[in-house]
Amino acid sequence: MILDSISLDRIREDDIFNFQAIYEEYENAIDDNFDSPFNELQANCNYYESHQFKHLFDNLLNATSYIHFNCCSLSSHWDPLNELLCELQGDKLSFDFIGLSETFKCDRDGRLNLPGFHDFIARHRTNCARGGVGLFIKEHINFKIREDLSTFIPHVFESVFVEIISSNDAYPNNIIGIIYRPNTQPKADLDIFTSTLFDILDIINIEKKQCVLLGDFNIDLLKYNTHEKTNIFVDNIFAQGFIPLIHKPTRIKKTSASLIDHIYTNNILSNTISGIIASDDIADHYGIFYIVPHKIPCTTLPTTEKRIFSKIRITRFKTYLEQIDFLPVTLNDNPEDAYCQFHSIYKKAFDIHFPLENVKANKKYIKKEHWMTEGLLTSMRNKSKLYKIKSSRPTENNINIYKTYVNKYNRLKREMKKIYYKNILELNKNNMKNTWHTLKQVLGKEHNKSNSSKLMITKSRTKISLHNLLMNTFLK
Predict the structure, then answer these.
(1) 3-class DSSP state for residue 133?
(2) Maximum mean pLDDT: which of 186-195, 303-312, 411-420
(3) What are the domain boundaries of the chain?
(4) Cis omega (within 30 of 0) on the bond before 328?
(5) Nearest-5° angle of CA 269, CA 98, CA 90?
């Protein structure tokens, strides 16, 4: 949809940017007795700034949550993706399923690991670096890949489907599908894409499985009343028992807005929450999410016995040791008895200050990078606020302020990363093991044992050559 000027404030208020309003107006004009499929769905699809998201939804307990990003090269945008996920997650809510499209070919990137998640599931083109889809699933969730559904036609229909294995008979197995429809002509074919998708949905419906589809469909739902193939696509989606959950534009430019990133489900509930993450940190598409409160029983995290070594406990322990009278130990002439006596006194003090406690297992939230300082986090939040201002009121002044701030923020982030690794290298320049570990971090090979370095360095010059290699090549 091409217009004179676009702002988030206008999009929020004007029904020409709301698919539900467009759909219902069009159908009501055709049928006076039209009964909208959205009547059963009370959730509103709104925009959320990333720095506000976790405060709005962190009170949700016992929820299943999904999010999708078009990342336009996962390797290139891995750091921004991690930063955004860190900002979105709260103390109680973190996403169970993270779907990604346009991942590009990233199978050799060893960085692609998230704490608390299974190994990254990816499908990519073999003869081209672009396209591709992927999915991260929380490690406590059991699943199997549905190869029969995971159709991958390069440049036409690219997908990966998994089935969630539920241990509770009251909750049927769910199917999650991540889909990307390339729109680059002449290979892109909407008719083949549509027929392929509905063949998959036929199988899901025959199996009577609940399903959630997420992805970049490159079908603008705002054209429902003006584009015949979009109209047919949407009508067939409803005929299959699925309903779209994202109703507002997900790709917004200065003079255009389109709704091309979609979420569909055949499990229509009135208490779900769906929306759009208004952030351009990863690509020129907004992230989309779907949260289902109180649908699946909350998985009880296992407990384990653990000693808590907090700073205050350590300080109290040291003070306690200083006050103990060890004179009976030092006066004991029998070394074995003296050791047993010392061990008994020390262990008693240790158990008092660091008792074994039953604690829940770590949820393993996504962690920020070591070089991401509190100052950078504050700058990142300020950047999000400036983006909100720029999007709501896209004046030339607001756009320039945002662009200037983003450039400064990115330069500062690169500098802090450089300083961090430079300090690590200087500290370990005589420690070969730690230097190699740093090399793997910089290269993204830290978690990839199969990709060992094949650099040939003479033995007499190994340390200085490796150190100079990192300093001069990776930290420029």
Answers:
(1) strand
(2) 186-195
(3) 8-293, 303-360, 374-474
(4) no
(5) 80
Which pLDDT band, with edges at 50, 70 and 90, does 458 fall under?
very low
Say which amino acid occupies 240: Q
CA 136 to chain centre: 8
Spatial contact of 114 and 134, defined as CB atoms under 8 Å apart: no
* Residues 353, 320 contacting (CB under 8 angstroms): yes
Place of tokens 């986090």: 377
The conformational region for residue 413 under phi > 0 = left, psi -120 to 50 = alpha, else beta, is alpha
The yes-or-no verdict on residue 1 having pLDDT over 80 is no
Residue 28, H or E segment: helix 19-30
Letter string b/e over residues 432-442, b meaning 16 or more CB atoms within 10 A of that residue's CB: eeebeebbbbb
**0.85 cut: is pTM over it?**
no
**Both structure tokens of 139:** 């490690």
Taking CA 376 as the corner, what is the angle to CA 373 and CA 377, rounded to the nearest 5 degrees? 90
Q: Is 203 helix (H, G, I), strand (E, B) or coil?
A: helix
Given the structure tokens 């009251």, which residue do they identify? 170
Number of helices (H), then strands (E), belonging to the chain: the values are: 13, 18
Angle at the Cα of 417 from the Cα atoms of 412 and 423, rounded to 5 degrees: 120
Sequence-ordered strand ranges (E) for 354-417: 356-360
CA angle 297, 272, 266 (to 5 degrees): 90
Residue type, 130: R
- Residue 426 vs residue 100, higher pLDDT: 100
Q: Taking the CA atoms of 353, 355, 358 and 363 in sequence, report the sign of the dihedral they define.
A: positive
Please tell me the number of Cα atoms within 13 Å of 277 on its side-chain side: 29
Of 429, 453, 430, 455, the residue nearest 441 (C-alpha): 453
CATH architecture of 8-293: 4-Layer Sandwich (3.60)
